[in-house]
Design a protein that fits this description.
The complex is a heterotrimer of chains A (136), B (130) and C (102). Chain A is α/β, with parallel strands linked by helices and 136 residues long. Chain A has a single domain, classed as Hypothetical Protein Ychn, Chain: A (3-Layer(aba) Sandwich). Helices cover 24% and strands 24% of the residues of chain A. Chain A has a five-stranded parallel sheet with strand order 6-3-2-1-7. In chain A, 40% of the residues are buried. Chain B is of the alpha/beta class and 130 residues long. A five-stranded parallel sheet of chain B has the order 4-3-2-1-5, with helices on both faces. In chain B, helix 1 links the parallel strand 1 and strand 2. Chain B is globular, with a radius of gyration of 14 Å. Chain C has 102 residues and is an alpha/beta fold. Chain C has one domain: Hypothetical Protein Ychn, Chain: A (3-Layer(aba) Sandwich). Chain C has a five-stranded parallel sheet with strand order 4-3-2-1-5. In chain C, helix 3 links the parallel strand 3 and strand 4. Chain C is globular, with a radius of gyration of 12 Å. Classes of the chains: A alpha/beta (136), B alpha/beta (130), C alpha/beta (102). At the B-C interface, helix 1 and strand 5 of B face helix 4 and strand 5 of C.
Chain lengths: 136, 130, 102
């Protein structure tokens, strides 16, 4: 019995560590990956801070969950839409973000970037294209 | 229409659970189905059996228990979020060697998969949170 | 294909309403609920921004939350329609998806 695949967008608009939303959102993405839907992640507003590299949580004592983003490729979660305007407003560039990659099994397992930088207007189009939008 | 509802902020501290409750009552009144209510983040705290709210204020947990009974609602508390916050049913408490459990009647603890399944099966998913 | 957006935070304290307005597509609906209803008041520092950015969308406010906050119905800005919970349900049913700006 076949069911239609739904487009799921996980919207991340909050910074990591100050609240648990970023981490618990990622836990939903991980579990959700097992359901074979068409999954995308959106990072806008303070959500872009979740992807910065070099997160060192030792002294604050919180769990550094940022390596999990790179594990998502193995679960076929490979579309990370990051908003350009949100980066610009925060003085960030792609260089400040970790290099999230996935192995493209349709292209000889070549490593490709999961991060897709989009304009605000393109992000709006991504959002309008979804069946389910989960916000945290 | 089949609605799936997420409650992701804690009771009393946030209006989210009240907004969700009111929305669900209205949806049912209009003849729609509410297929599941999924409690995540601090929303799991709605399910505590141990709250003693002031008498002149709404009794949040009791309202949900009553509504669930009246309309056969499926109230699901996320196990991962619940464990973090010390919300346990009897099974979990026994399994984890804890000396108490605190989930109210009408709520059941289950995995995050229930949220995804809810959203796959429902026509609309609405989140009430922080 | 239209989206119903909800916003639950005051725009004087939180970016969510502005972000929502910046991402909504023409023809979408935006419903202000909970503390989000403060974004619907006329004569505030946000009123013109909301009207301007919201020119191509339909703006709504949840009457129950307006009343709770002692905002007189007459202070809801022109162009913003007050709805009740049943109309909220209708809107959620008639749009294609719901997006909640928290």
């Amino acid at each position: 019995m076949s069911e239609d695949i739904k487009k799921f967008l996980y919207v991340n608009r909050k910074a990591p560590y100050g609240t648990i939303f970023a981490q618990e959102a990622l836990e939903v993405v991980l579990i959700g990956a097992a359901f074979d839907q068409d999954v995308s992640l959106a990072f806008l507003d303070d959500g872009v801070f979740q992807l910065t590299k070099g997160q060192d949580t030792k002294e604050v004592g919180l769990k550094n969950f940022s390596p999990t983003f790179n594990a998502l490729g193995d679960y076929e979660v490979t579309k990370f839409y990051v908003e350009q305007e949100s980066l610009d407003e925060r003085g960030l560039t792609l260089d400040d973000l970790q290099d999230v990659q996935y192995e493209d099994e349709d292209d000889d397992y070549n490593e490709k970037p999961s991060i897709i930088v989009v304009s605000r207007s393109q992000m709006a189009d991504v959002m309008a294209d979804q069946d389910v939008v989960l916000s945290f | 229409m089949k609605f799936g509802i997420v409650v992701s902020a804690g009771p009393y501290t946030y209006e989210a659970s009240d907004s969700a409750f009111n929305f669900i009552k209205a949806a049912i009144a209009k003849g729609h189905e509410v297929s599941r209510v999924f409690f995540y983040h601090d929303g799991v705290n709605v399910a505590t059996r141990l709250s003693i709210p002031p008498q002149d204020d709404r009794q949040i947990q009791q309202q949900w228990t009553d509504l669930a009974k009246e309309h056969d609602l499926d109230l699901v508390v996320c196990i991962a979020a619940a464990q973090r916050r010390g919300m346990l049913d009897k099974n979990e408490a026994d399994r984890q060697g804890k000396d108490a459990d605190n989930i109210a009647e009408g709520f059941r603890i289950s995995g995050l998969g229930q949220l995804i399944e809810m959203s796959i099966q429902a026509d609309r998913t609405i989140t009430f949170g922080d | 294909m239209a989206t119903l957006h909800t916003v639950n935070k005051s725009p004087f304290q939180n970016q969510s309403l502005i972000s929502c307005l910046g991402h909504a597509k023409a023809g979408d609906s935006i419903l202000m609920i909970e503390d989000g209803v403060y974004g619907a008041m006329s004569g505030s520092a946000m009123s013109e921004v909301v009207a301007g950015m919201g020119a191509n969308v339909k703006l709504f406010v949840l009457g129950a939350d307006v009343a709770a906050r002692g905002i007189d119905a007459g202070r809801v800005a022109e162009g913003i329609t007050s709805v009740d919970y049943e109309e909220f349900v209708d809107m959620a049913a008639s749009c294609d998806r719901v997006q909640n700006w928290l």
